[in-house]
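> call design_seq(struct)
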């Protein structure tokens, strides 16, 4: 090789080395690119949010409307529709902030107001999912959680159907979501997110020296403590067994007791006026529930697929279970029983949908169908309370079955997924007994917070504005008395 050629090669190598030395600090100081939302995840969550809205209007409205007498059909539609409208506004004013922001010294129980009026949130803001480095637009997350906040109080009105006046409903819903729903949502679902946990765990692993190790561990403990009370305990509630169903079920029970029984309850027949409407509503609930459960994965991934198949099979199993129980004890299976069983299965599988295996979900549905049927017939008749549309018997009892069952069925040796440990970067060891105890504590927390809070709100409203119409007005029907119109004009 010629000397001149060697010189040229050497010059190129030296130049490249110099450029690398100059550029290295710039590369080293370049900030990490923040994660960007995946369009598939975003599209799925937009769809899931619309599906959950479909559950409430028209799904729940039709389900409840078909179950009441003709003279009260329109009032049920109106109560559910009003609830959705008012909660959507409250959610963006301060509800989202109370549920999903840090609450300073009260952080274990409720969030603060740093995101009130959606302060600081733009189309470029992102919310973390359950995977480190995966995000969705925060506006999408706000909309998704808004639909949960809307359907929960809408479930309650079924307990006081056909006798609670609309003016009392108008006041009850804002008070209840503020003092009951938002705190429970925060206690069960609020946490610092996967990225903070993963980063803190990596810092502990990388720390060298005793002092550095202690400081890193203290930082990790601080991140872990930035969560709601039940989340700190380790409670598992994939899509709202405690937050939505036990919460609304026990509130409805308190409402039924404080408002009192319908005129003629126990003496007059009060059959559903349209089981056709009820089945249409139940079917819409089932379809919408795929957004409710599979959407709670916050991503279009395998966990969403697991929640989806569980929402199929648990619902079907519970409907069959309820119909079988009716055949055994009443001699005939009913359409109302089948529809009620389907809802009971949907309720029970909600907290377990992303944790249980499909076979476990079937077992959960079978148990829910039998037990809920027992509560809405034998237990309700024995104690004589007028839970008009069986919100307590289906949602509270079904929610308790699901919440406790989640602690059992999430176990990997029973076909469950286990629980991912973000500090270890893998699924952790599963202690079934300990998890069931945590689930039971969370159920108790929800029953006490919602039960006492709801009782206080109902009692105050009863004293201040009254809760129900007088006897003659109730016999005429809420449609005409409260709204001046009829659901049907033949």
């Amino acid at each position: 090789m010629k000397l001149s050629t060697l010189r040229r090669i050497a010059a190129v190598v030296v130049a490249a080395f110099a450029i690398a030395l100059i550029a290295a600090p710039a590369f080293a100081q370049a900030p990490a690119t923040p994660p960007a939302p995946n369009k598939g995840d975003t599209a799925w969550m937009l769809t899931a949010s619309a599906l959950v809205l479909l559950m409430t209007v028209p799904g729940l409205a039709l389900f409840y409307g078909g179950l009441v007498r003709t003279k009260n059909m329109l009032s049920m539609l109106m109560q559910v529709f009003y609830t959705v409208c008012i909660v959507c506004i409250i959610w963006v004013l301060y509800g989202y902030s109370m549920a999903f922001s840090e609450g300073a010294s009260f952080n274990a129980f409720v969030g603060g107001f740093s995101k009130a009026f959606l302060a600081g949130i733009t189309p470029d803001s992102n919310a973390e999912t359950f995977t480190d480095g995966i995000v969705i637009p925060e506006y999408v997350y706000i909309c998704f959680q808004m639909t949960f906040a809307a359907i929960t109080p809408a479930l309650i009105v079924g307990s006081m159907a056909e006798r609670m006046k609309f003016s009392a409903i108008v006041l009850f819903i804002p008070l209840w979501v503020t003092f009951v729903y938002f705190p429970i949502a925060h206690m069960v679902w609020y946490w610092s997110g996967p990225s903070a946990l993963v980063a803190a765990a990596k810092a502990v692993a990388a720390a060298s020296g005793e002092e550095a190790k202690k400081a890193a561990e203290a930082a990790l403990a601080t991140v872990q403590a930035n969560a709601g009370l039940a989340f700190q305990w380790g409670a598992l509630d994939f899509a709202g067994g405690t937050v939505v169903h036990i919460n609304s079920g026990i509130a409805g029970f308190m409402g039924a007791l404080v408002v009192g029984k319908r005129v003629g309850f126990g003496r007059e027949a009060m059959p559903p006026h349209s089981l056709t409407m009820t089945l249409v509503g139940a079917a819409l609930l089932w379809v919408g529930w795929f957004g409710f459960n599979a959407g709670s994965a916050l991503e279009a991934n395998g966990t969403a697929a697991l929640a989806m198949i569980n929402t199929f099979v648990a619902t079907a199993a519970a409907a069959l279970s309820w119909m079988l129980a009716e055949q055994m004890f009443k001699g005939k299976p009913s359409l109302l029983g089948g529809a009620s069983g389907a809802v009971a299965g949907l309720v029970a599988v909600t907290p377990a949908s992303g944790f249980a295996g499909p076979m476990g979900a079937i077992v959960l549905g079978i148990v829910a169908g039998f037990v809920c049927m027992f509560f809405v017939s034998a237990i309700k008749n024995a104690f004589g309370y007028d839970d008009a549309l069986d919100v307590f018997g289906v949602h509270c009892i079904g929610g308790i079955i699901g919440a406790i069952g989640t602690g059992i069925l999430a176990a990997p040796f029973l076909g469950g997924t286990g629980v991912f440990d973000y500090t270890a970067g893998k699924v952790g060891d599963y202690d079934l007994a300990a998890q069931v105890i945590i689930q039971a504590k969370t159920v108790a927390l929800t029953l006490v917070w919602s039960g006492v809070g709801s009782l206080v709100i109902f009692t105050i409203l009863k004293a201040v504005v009254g809760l129900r119409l007088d006897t003659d007005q109730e016999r005429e029907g809420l449609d005409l008395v409260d709204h001046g119109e009829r659901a049907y004009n033949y």
